[in-house]
User: What shape does this take?
Amino acid sequence: MRIRATLRQLEIFLALQEAGSVSAAAEQLHLTQPTVSMQLKKLADLVGLPLYHQIGRRLQLTDAGLRTLQTAREVVGSLDSLQMDLDDLQGLKRGTLRLGVVTTAKYFIPHLLGDFLERYPDVEIDFKVGNRQQMIDRLSEGYEDLYVFSHPPENAPLTLHPFLTNPLVAIAANTHPWADRDRLSLEEFAQAPFLIREQGSGTRYALEQFLKQRGVKLNVKMTVESNEAIRHSVMSGLGVSILSQHTLAFGADTGLRILPVEGLPIPSQWSLAHHKSNPLSPVARTFLQWAEQRSPALTN
Ligand code: PGA
Assistant: This one.
């Protein structure tokens, strides 16, 4: 016998999993908490097993809940895809483009999106930003259509579309004693108090790999969870750092200097990534083609 769950119940269950609590799901869906609770109870009754347990403030899905979640994603995803295909057949480019980008990519992706929306004004964008680890977690849950990484997860079956270089450069305040040096060895640079991004950051991951290869250790003074906060801390003389050059694009002249450290910049490359097994929605496909056509202009 088929489970007679409604589409609304599946959407509510998806929102519960993403938002993490009944109250947050209710807020996200503009529904009352009792409505959300009642629909979740009906869904669990139809499934015949509990879908989740509340452990303290954490929501833990049961095996039945995980399986139901997978079906909810497939059903909702496939209806979204149907809508987009139908729009496509009518020559319309509309629908939602779900994009997840690592924090360092947020400096240039919005400009790309601005141009894309000018061309396709009926497309809506759902734009999520997080560090590399947060985006890897979202990718494994399949929340977004496309992701922007410079260091994609190694073991995931991904299709990658490289589109822009991402050099990581050494920075100091322009009042720093090294600001006017022509050359600086990595060993000397490594002695300065260093401001490093948090665990889970792709910038930190690339930096750690680079240092490991050279057997160099940094003098880490502060761990900071934001590129902006690092830039401001460096400007105020708290130490030096290594960040993507893209983080400096706005305000490069506001008190920072790129230091000529040997072996730097650390090279890397931005790629648009998606799961090999997930068919791309028409909007995501259109965006990908469009971004690829634009990439020579972006790299200049
Ligand atoms: P992140 O992004 O340091 O914010 O994680 C950069 C990257 O993944 O390369």
